[in-house]
Design a protein that fits this description.
This protein has 286 residues and is an alpha/beta fold. 38% of the residues lie in helices and 17% in strands. The protein binds thymidine-5'-phosphate (TMP) and magnesium ion. Residues 38-41, 55, 57-58, 77-78, 85, 102-103, 106, 153-155, 199, 228, 230 line the site of thymidine-5'-phosphate.
Amino acid sequence: MVPELEKATVRIRQPERVRGIIQALRERGVARLQVISDFDMTLSRFGCNGRRCPTSHNILDTSRVISEDGKKKLKDLLHYYYPIEIDPNRTLEEKRPLMVEWWTKAHELLVQQKIHKSDIAQIVRESEAMLRDGFKEFFDQLHKNNVPLFIFSAGVGDILEEIIRQANVFYSNVNVVSNYMGFSDDGVLTHFKGPLIHTYNKNNTVLQGTGYFQQLSTRTSIILLGDSMGDLTMADGVPSVENILKIGFLNDKVEERRRKYLDSYDIVLESDETLDVVNGILRYIL
Ligand code: TMP
Ligand code: MG
């Protein structure tokens, strides 16, 4: 059916169920399909050349427009809060207020830096941002088949849009909901527009008023892509879901988190920097 599912990086707890979902997605047809995806560490790479790839926040945090003091403070926040974000031994209820703290503090620091809107394209060009291998086929297949791609990100919208634009795949079927920067009339960052999206509120509560999923009410077949336990609720606002296939990238702390991921995602991709499996499934169902 999908040869890519034989890759060594693929783990599936219920193979029969997964086969059934993929079959159903194919039978229901392309007109019913939509894809909902996280951005950082899902569409973008986790590692490259033995180092960590940057998130959309990291791209800003480490760029030349941030003062040395600002860089240090942002890095300290990352080192304090990231282990909490991915800790399998804390509940989402425990994590949620801490994530709000992290995002709030980070955005306050960024606002102090007088970042110019006109610097963003260059910041992204000079960064080590990288989309996963196979991104072009992924975006192209969805675009050619008029399949809506919803990117739901707790990262920085302006940065991730620029990454996609520079990769020449920001097609008309792509919609992004994320944390967007607000600028003064002379183009200086003054605030982040609400509602604040962090790792663990990626659900309908932050989509009120967008009407996005309501417009796509006939798209009842869903492929969901994520890398965090927080990404599992991204499709909660879809009015009627007939079939959903959840694919999770398990990038970090693989051994400790494997059980949870296997229980929550239909397909788990361990330390896989490519979109091969997703592309293989799309090739089969489109
Ligand atoms: P997402 O992948 O769910 O959209 O989440 C964005 C990621 O951004 C999340 O893994 C934490 C990370 N992040 C940073 O790297 N630096 C920051 O300052 C903040 C607030 C988040
Ligand atoms: Mg992510």
